[in-house]
# Entry
Amino acid sequence: MRFTAKSRMRRAALATTTAAALLTVTGCGYINQQATTLEYAAADGVNGKVGPLDLRNMLVVATAADEPGRITGAVYNSSNEEVELTMTGPDGGEATLTVPANGEYFIDNDAEPEIIEPAGAGPGALSLVTFETSGASEDLTLPVLDGTFPRYATMVPTEGS
# Structure
């Protein structure tokens, strides 16, 4: 019977050591959030939602804070009615577009330029833009880029655009 008490002590010590080792190895996963569960905009712009509209990859293309800025991105309408979206820059410049019912509107090179004057921030900074529909409003801080990236070079606002 003497050996039974020693065996129990050894088993208890082994169990404690195993539990401590497992907690040490897996403890980081217990206190840290998994990176794959974080939602983020894997793009140059930011995402948002205003009323029935989902805003994706929204940003401003401009050469300087006091120059015109072109808003670019994609707008998706999940409602059964067309929705008018008004975008207002930090200094009051406005642009308006209409998104078809259950449709999308891509603000890119193929679309009519959506210009706010002035951009309100220079390249590398952030510009506060208000997105508004009837009954809903959302302020988004959009990154301002210039024509350095070839993808945006043709989107830089010019005289008469």
Notes: The helical segments are 2-31, 150-153.
